[in-house]
Design brief:
The protein is α/β, with parallel strands linked by helices and 281 residues long. The protein has a domain at 34-177 and 227-277: Rossmann fold. It is 37% helix and 25% strand. The strands form three sheets. The protein has a seven-stranded mixed beta sheet with strand order 3-2-1-4-5-11-10, with helices on both faces. Helix 6 runs parallel beside helix 8. The radius of gyration is 19 Å and the shape is globular. The structure holds S-adenosylmethionine.
Length: 281
């Protein structure tokens, strides 16, 4: 086993951060005009409360499926796009990653991550997903959890991710399922019985792609809806090979135990997951 001097790691890490920050400062000034709703205090507090509850969509549904798609993490250099409060970055570090870089647009989310989910080999950077081409490094594993709904240009994002990957690297990500993002606020998310029981999901204007501005915690919560085939074609169009695809499944037991939270999952999946690989042909 190689013996590594801790001071060397720290100084290497700060040189890396200084270099990245110089590039990013210029980049941020020129390009950053994106929605940053997680820096809205009310939205942030609401998300933090929801995420810290024992029963939440992230920990109970999203994370187990995402983890099941990961390759061996030990020894890999990892980039987590839209790292939020840092739970995933910390998990990859605990799984033996060589290094983890978490990037996010939100200062509040990053502040929380730096306070609660730190690690010797974890670096958090304020960087928008639209600007990841500013990163100099190449990675063995790129991950992202529930962030790509905010990307206006998915084709470009996929091409940028591809460029950041080493040959043979993996790209594992989740995003909201198109059947969920289709909802445009013009009706209830579900058609219900008189007593409020969900009968089926409403998927209005599924074929109309583009920005959805809906009331969700804040008045104008923005995300981008695209069809399933558009997502798949963005991935393969960038040159990535799709190795696996999953849609979030919730067990009958969970649905019965927590009907309020998970009752609707019988009718449509909330998330879609892909494990992709950069394979040179
Ligand atoms: C639903 S949270 C997920 C956070 C984290 N990945 C997790 O699973 O807990 C979405 C995250 O995406 C970030 N985000 C939204 N738009 C972004 C953008 N344009 N660039 C980078 N991060 C963005 C938000 O700040 C937030 O931290």
């Amino acid at each position: 086993m190689a013996i590594v001097n801790e001071e060397d790691i720290v100084s290497e890490k700060s040189a890396f951060i200084d270099k990245q920050c110089d590039t990013l400062k210029t980049n941020r000034e020129s390009k950053m005009a994106k929605q940053n709703v997680y820096d809205n205090e009310g939205f942030f507090e609401n998300f933090k409360d929801t995420r810290s509850k024992k029963i939440n969509f992230n920990d109970c549904i999203e994370t187990p499926i995402l983890l099941s798609l990961l390759p061996e993490v030990r020894g890999k250099t990892v980039l987590d796009i839209g790292c939020g409060m840092g739970q995933h970055a910390k998990q990859y570090s605990n799984m033996g990653a060589k290094s983890v870089i978490g990037i996010d647009i939100s200062e509040r989310m990053l502040e929380y991550a730096k306070e609660h989910f730190t690690g010797e080999n974890i670096t958090y950077l304020r960087l928008a997903l639209e600007d990841i081409s500013a990163l100099d490094d190449r990675f063995d594993l790129v991950t992202s959890s529930l962030v790509f709904d905010y990307a206006e240009n998915l084709d470009e994002l996929m091409r940028n991710v591809y460029r950041l990957m080493n040959s043979g690297a993996y790209f594992v990500f989740s995003m909201s399922h198109p059947m969920a993002t289709a909802w445009d606020g013009t009706c209830d998310r579900y058609t219900r019985t008189a007593s409020g029981e969900r009968l089926y999901a409403n998927v209005p204007n599924y074929m109309v792609e583009g920005k959805r501005s809906v009331k969700w915690v804040v008045k104008d919560y923005e995300l981008y809806h695209r069809t399933f085939s558009t997502i798949v074609n963005a991935i393969v169009g960038a040159g990535l090979k799709i190795e696996r695809c999953e849609e979030s499944r919730v067990s009958d037991e969970m649905r019965t135990q927590y009907p309020e939270q998970f009752g609707g999952t019988l009718h449509r999946p909330d998330f879609v997951f892909f494990r992709c690989r950069k394979v040179n042909i």
